């Protein structure tokens, strides 16, 4: 296992469309080790999720949640289960939208408010290559939309309708985090 280097905004890998993974590749030791490294990297940096392009591999793989937080428990944001999805696709977006704060391990210190569908369905393959369907809402739906955006070369800044909320971490924590 290893902690991987996280690509920062401006690196072209973050703006490329990621390649699908061939299902027969999923069981390979190399891919399984890479997924384990993604989970370890996401945990190390306290991410809510991580997409493979963020660690310089242009592949359609995301991990959401955290193995560490799942054990420790916590509030809503901390309690999303650890999920790995390969070739994930979103569908059945709710008409209802919700705006909330997002940050990103590839966008340094910036936080901003992003409008997303409140609920959506995600389909893909799990770590064993088995089909998986997850009906997500709230924070989990947000994290899926954020991570799957990375597979299409998008970051959360692209989804902001205006930048008036954009804040550095320190100011976000000082003025916004506890009050909204
Ligand atoms: Ni991100």
Describe the protein's architecture and organization:
The structure is a single chain. The chain has about 180 residues and is α+β, with helices and mostly antiparallel strands. The chain has one domain (about 10-180): Peptide Deformylase (Alpha-Beta Complex), CATH 3.90.45.10. The protein has four helices and eight strands. The strands form two sheets. A five-stranded antiparallel sheet has the order 1-2-3-6-7, with helices on both faces. Strands 4-5-8 form a three-stranded antiparallel sheet. Residues about 70-75 have low confidence and may be disordered. Bound molecules: nickel (II) ion. Nickel (II) ion binds near residues 105 and 106.
| Poorly predicted tracts of residues | 70-74
Count every beta strand, where a strand is a DSSP E run of 2 or more residues.
8
Mean pLDDT rating: 92
Tell me the CATH superfamily.
Peptide deformylase
| Portion in strands | 25-35%
Distinct small-molecule ligands in the complex: nickel (II) ion
**Radius of gyration, rounded?**
16 Å
User: What is the SS-derived class?
Assistant: alpha+beta
CATH topology: Peptide Deformylase
Query: Judging by the overall fold, what is the CATH architecture?
Result: Alpha-Beta Complex
**Tally of individual helices:** 4
Strand order of the largest sheet: 1-2-3-6-7
Distance between the amino and carboxyl termini: 38 Å
Order of helices and strands: HEEHEEEEEHEH
DSSP helix fraction: 25-40%
- Biggest beta sheet summary: 5 strands, antiparallel
């Amino acid at each position: 296992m290893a902690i991987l280097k996280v690509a920062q905004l401006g690196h072209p890998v973050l703006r490329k469309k990621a390649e699908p993974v061939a299902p027969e590749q999923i069981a390979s030791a190399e891919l399984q080790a890479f997924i384990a490294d993604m989970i370890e990297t996401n945990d190390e940096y306290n991410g809510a999720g991580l997409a493979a392009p963020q660690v310089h591999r242009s592949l359609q793989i995301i991990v959401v949640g955290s193995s560490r937080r799942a054990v420790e428990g916590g509030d809503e944001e901390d309690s999303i289960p650890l999920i790995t999805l390969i070739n994930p696709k979103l569908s059945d977006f709710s008409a209802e939208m919700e705006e909330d704060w997002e940050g990103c391990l590839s966008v340094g210190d910036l936080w901003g408010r992003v409008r997303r569908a409140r609920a959506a369905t995600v389909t893909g393959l799990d770590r064993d290559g088995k089909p998986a369907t997850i009906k997500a809402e709230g924070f989990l739906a947000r994290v899926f939309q954020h991570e799957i955006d990375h597979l299409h070369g998008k970051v959360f800044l692209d989804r902001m309708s205006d930048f008036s909320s954009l804040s550095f971490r320190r100011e976000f924590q000082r003025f916004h985090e506890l009050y909204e």
